[in-house]
């Protein structure tokens, strides 16, 4: 029997929710059409490329893309225009990267530490033999807030580069709530901003989550100063173990990367703390739901360092000890979306899913288009990830019917697993193929069913 190419009179490549694609085969007219809807897969790998900086090439240079240099960058944050701000920790500066990867220095002077307020390079961050700025957050007006950890202060930078101290007293650690310089912090590490402009602080050595109003009024939302533990609870009944990163969702829930507990915690606006994912004190890299998931390793590399809430409502986590980027759904389902787990599986390779490599990543931010930016700290770079998608190739040469078999081509990211399902009614689906994408895609040959219409869908392997 001859092979018959299928007419593609009405074809297009559509993707369901960025995670799943489907194809309808109508035997009445041998016409293929793509269809779309809403779906959610268990696993969506991200494809990462170097955005700014050069792996291993530490320095202070401004420039475009790989011509720029960083010195142990940690916190990253985005404004409404898509600019990325970087806490260039060991250069004692705050950098700005445009969507076109143009890197400039917004505030601070490379190699110059101190506490001075001022404009641009007249301002100072950090302390002698210690780190500079660590965490960043940006409000709707484009003001950048800085966790100046060793100076125990929260700083504010206007879009024009004017730096002031919003709260805390330089070099004076403590747990005191208060307004402006009367408040105290004990190595503030991570920051986030809610829709009302309030700043939330992961006060690392204080083991608390603090709230700072735009006017500089500081209160303690959750945790008890100096009380290290993993207890869930409300307000000061809850415990943390050196929290690193924080992120706010649209409902002002605060997600916390609880570093030495190797967990992701959730704090409601009323200060009610629960553990969303991970199990306190249990290290590992296992994906799973809630307490079945694991973060971090059993060395000083620790656990999760930063969190960011994506436009999809999921929480993205830099798992520093495992050199991976994880994703946590609001329901607590944890998956690994980039990097290969293991303390020694570090590197600087661009790639998709497990092909990508990081070297002790500390910061993460997510934009409104679904991209994520990772501060790949020991690689001295910022890397950008986009969700990988795949599609059926619906060109006439790629779709054939022969001897009761339907042949087609599926295009997707190299090295990523895919499952193809078939259905006669869009209600019941049967897996018919499971494979891994090669450089040329994935060639499939599947039996034709007896139904008038045959439906095929492709999804990422869990």
Shape: globular
Helix percent reads under 10%
Continuous helix count: 0
State the end-to-end CA separation: 38 Å
What would you note in describing this structure?
This protein has 462 residues and is mostly beta strands. The protein is built from no helices and 40 strands. It has strands at 4-5, 20-26, 31-35, 46-53, 63-64, 73-78, 84-88, 93-97, 102-107, 118-119, 135-138, 144-148, 153-157, 162-167, 178-179, 188-193, 199-203, 208-212, 217-222, 233-234, 243-248, 254-258, 263-267, 272-277, 288-289, 304-309, 315-319, 324-328, 333-338, 351-352, 363-366, 372-376, 381-387, 391-393, 400-402, 405-411, 417-423, 430-436, 442-447, 453-460. The strands form 8 sheets. Strands 1, 34, 35, 36 and 39 form a 5-stranded antiparallel sheet that branches. A hairpin with a 5-residue loop joins β21 (243-248) and β22. The two termini are 38 Å apart. 48% of the residues are buried. The model is unreliable at 1-20 and 24-42 (pLDDT under 50).
């Amino acid at each position: 029997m001859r092979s018959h190419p299928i007419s593609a009179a009405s074809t297009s490549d559509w993707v369901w929710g960025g995670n799943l694609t489907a194809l309808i085969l109508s035997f009445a007219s041998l016409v293929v059409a793509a269809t779309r809807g809403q779906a959610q897969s268990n696993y969506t790998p991200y494809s990462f490329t170097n955005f700014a900086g050069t792996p291993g090439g530490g320095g202070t240079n401004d420039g475009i893309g790989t011509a720029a240099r960083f010195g142990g960058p940690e916190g990253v944050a985005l404004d409404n225009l898509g600019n990325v701000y970087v806490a260039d920790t060991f250069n004692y500066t705050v950098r700005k990267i445009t969507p076109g990867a143009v890197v400039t220095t917004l505030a601070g002077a490379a190699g110059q530490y101190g506490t001075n307020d001022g404009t641009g390079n007249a301002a100072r961050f950090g302390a002698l033999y210690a780190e500079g700025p660590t965490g960043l957050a940006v409000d709707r007006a484009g003001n950048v807030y800085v966790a100046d950890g060793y100076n125990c202060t929260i700083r504010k930078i206007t879009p024009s580069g004017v730096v002031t101290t919003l709260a805390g007293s330089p070099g004076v650690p403590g747990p005191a709530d208060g307004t402006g310089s009367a408040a105290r912090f004990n190595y503030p590490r991570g920051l986030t901003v809610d829709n009302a402009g309030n700043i939330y602080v992961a006060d690392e050595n204080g083991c608390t989550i603090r709230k700072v109003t735009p006017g500089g009024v500081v209160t303690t939302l959750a945790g008890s100063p100096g009380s290290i533990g993993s207890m869930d609870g409300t307000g000061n009944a809850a415990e943390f173990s050196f929290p690193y990163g924080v992120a706010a969702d649209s409902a002002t829930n605060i997600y916390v990367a609880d570093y030495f507990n190797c967990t992701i915690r959730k704090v409601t606006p009323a200060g009610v703390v629960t553990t969303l994912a991970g199990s306190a004190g249990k290290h590992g890299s296992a994906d799973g739901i809630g307490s079945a998931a694991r973060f971090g390793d059993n060395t000083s590399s620790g656990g999760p360092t930063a969190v960011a809430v994506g436009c999809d409502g999921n929480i993205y986590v830099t798992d520093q000890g495992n050199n991976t980027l994880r994703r946590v759904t609001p329901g607590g389902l944890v998956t690994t979306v980039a990097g290969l787990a293991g303390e020694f599986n570090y590197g600087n390779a661009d790639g998709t899913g497990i092909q990508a490599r990081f070297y002790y990543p500390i910061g993460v931010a997510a934009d409104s288009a679904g991209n994520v930016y990772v501060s790949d700290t020991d690689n001295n770079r910022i890397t950008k990830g986009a969700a990988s998608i795949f599609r059926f190739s619906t060109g006439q040469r790629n779709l054939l019917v022969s001897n009761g078999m339907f042949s087609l081509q599926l295009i997707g990211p190299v090295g990523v697993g895919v499952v193809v399902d078939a259905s006669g009614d869009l209600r019941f689906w049967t897996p018919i193929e499971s494979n891994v994408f090669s450089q040329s895609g994935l060639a499939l040959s599947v039996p034709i069913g007896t139904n008038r219409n045959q439906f095929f869908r492709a999804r990422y392997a869990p």
